Amino acid sequence: MFKNYTVALPKNAGISCYFASDECVVYHELSGKTHLLDEMGGFLYKAILEHCLTRPQLLAHCVATFELPVDFDLEAYLDKLIFDYENLGLIEVMENY
């Protein structure tokens, strides 16, 4: 996966989501699957519902919102989360040049 990207909701994917406390439930109409996102995943999903975000913007949102352990590798965690959500069809990732 590239390190310079922008994340958005996929167009015409029929995505519906519901936020409750620290979780997010996402229904993907095209696949017919429902996904439960953890606190950070739900937070990121809510952020991209509002507008497209770049990788640095997503990282900055996480740092400003969550108290993370010193040894937590946020970049690796975020990249894996984005990769997983893209493979599930929940987001669209576009490489920035």
Describe this structure in words.
- There is one protein chain.
- The protein has a domain at 5-12 and 39-91.
- Strand 2 (15-20) and strand 3 (23-28) form a beta hairpin.
- The strands form two sheets. It has a three-stranded antiparallel sheet with strand order 5-1-6.
- The protein has three helices and six strands; from the N terminus they run E-E-E-E-H-E-H-H-E.
- The protein is of the alpha+beta class.
Contiguous helical run count? 3
Shape: globular
Low-pLDDT ranges? none
Mean pLDDT: 90
Strand order of the largest sheet: 5-1-6
Q: Which percent bin holds the helix content?
A: 25-40%
Specify Rg, calculated over alpha carbons.
13 Å
Question: What's the count of strands?
Answer: 6
Strand percentage lies at: 25-35%
The helix/strand series, from N terminus to C terminus, equals EEEEHEHHE
Main sheet makeup: 3 strands, antiparallel
Structural class: alpha+beta
Distance between the termini: 14 Å
Chain-wise SSE layout:
Elements: E1 5-8, E2 15-20, E3 23-28, E4 33-37, H1 39-50, E5 53-54, H2 55-65, H3 74-87, E6 92-95
Question: What brief labels describe this structure?
Answer:
single chain; 97 residues; alpha+beta; 38% helix; globular
Provide a brief overview of the structure.
The chain is of the alpha+beta class and 97 residues long. The protein is built from 3 helices and 6 strands. Strand 3 and strand 4 form a beta hairpin.
